[in-house]
Design a protein that fits this description.
alpha+beta; 5 helices; globular
């Protein structure tokens, strides 16, 4: 026997319902994508015998259009109706910075009502770690400039208050982004409240000097997540060249985590993540060091 069509409380089948559906019944917000592209970059050395200094860097573009004309922002743009959010992220990254074919993962969705002065905009942010030496960054599209900014992340204040059945914890984070003479600064206040099993985290921009939109909050959250992910995933190897020393790898971990690590414990932790090669460094003025590569057959996230 043929199956009876499924109808709703008004007696309509799904086909009938869709034929009569009014798509203008609700206001539709616009959707954008914003990309946080991190790298670890060597700084200039004035003495070739010194170990190279490295720093965490973030890619920013200088806006060439209103709003926030002339200010710095994360690469990004609007999602068209005919493309996926991930496709839009890749398209915008390439059109604004000339970067293509990098692994990105979705980070968070930002939906505060007044986050964009033009209209109601919801943004999906993506994060990537890249080996900067393989990239040719160029400004394009609606960007006047694009460049890597050194990131400094400092906890200025931290407090915790016990509540009945929970707690309230507050941190004030100061972020500095520097590229030559250009210095961008801001502070984000993170308030975490917990009552029983319910936990809520709010982020508020307390100060902002030179960054467009709410991108300071995105940067703070991305660094927080990045520090967590390097502890339990192999994402950090996206920052490394094909061959590297264990000292170089440890230094990259330290830069991202913001603290020093004990070499013996670090080497034990890396034992099943890297493969020893028969090659050595050839830098003048330095004792040759064994080179390693990422163990590609490792089952890791």
């Amino acid at each position: 026997m043929p199956k009876e069509p499924v109808t709703d409380r008004n007696g309509l089948t799904e086909e009938q319902f869709l034929q009569g559906y009014d798509a203008g019944m609700y206001e539709r917000p616009s959707v954008t994508v914003d990309m946080l592209i991190f790298t670890v970059m060597e700084q200039e050395q004035d003495n070739y015998r010194k170990l190279s200094e490295k720093s965490l860097q973030l890619l920013l573009i200088q806006r060439g259009e209103h709003p926030y004309l002339g200010q710095w922002a994360l690469p990004g743009g609007f999602v068209s109706v005919e493309e996926s959010i991930e496709d839009a992220a890749r398209r915008e990254l390439y059109s604004e910075t000339n970067i293509d074919n990098v692994y990105m993962e979705q980070l968070f969705t930002w939906g505060d009502v007044n986050r964009d002065p033009r209209l109601r905009v919801i943004s999906s942010s993506y994060m990537a770690l890249v080996d900067r030496t393989t990239l040719d960054v160029q400004a394009g599209d609606d960007a006047d400039d694009a460049g890597w900014f050194e990131v400094t992340y400092d906890v200025m204040e931290s407090s915790r208050k016990e509540l009945a059945g929970g707690y309230e914890q507050e941190e004030r984070i100061r972020i500095t982004l520097q590229k030559g003479d250009i210095v961008l600064t801001g502070e984000v206040i993170i308030t975490e409240t917990a009552h029983g099993h319910v936990r809520r985290v709010q982020r508020e921009i307390a100060e902002n000097h030179g960054l467009a939109f709410d991108h300071l909050k995105m940067i703070q959250y991305a660094i927080e997540r990045l520090r967590g992910k390097v502890e339990y995933t192999d994402i950090i190897f996206n920052l490394m060249p094909p061959l590297f020393t264990l000292s170089e790898l440890q230094r990259v971990y330290e830069i991202i985590l913001g603290r020093e690590l004990l070499a013996p414990a670090f080497r034990r932790k890396m034992a099943d993540r890297v493969t020893e090669t028969e090659e050595f460094t050839k830098d003048a003025g330095h004792r040759p060091s064994k080179l390693y590569r990422y163990r590609v057959d490792r089952d890791a996230n």
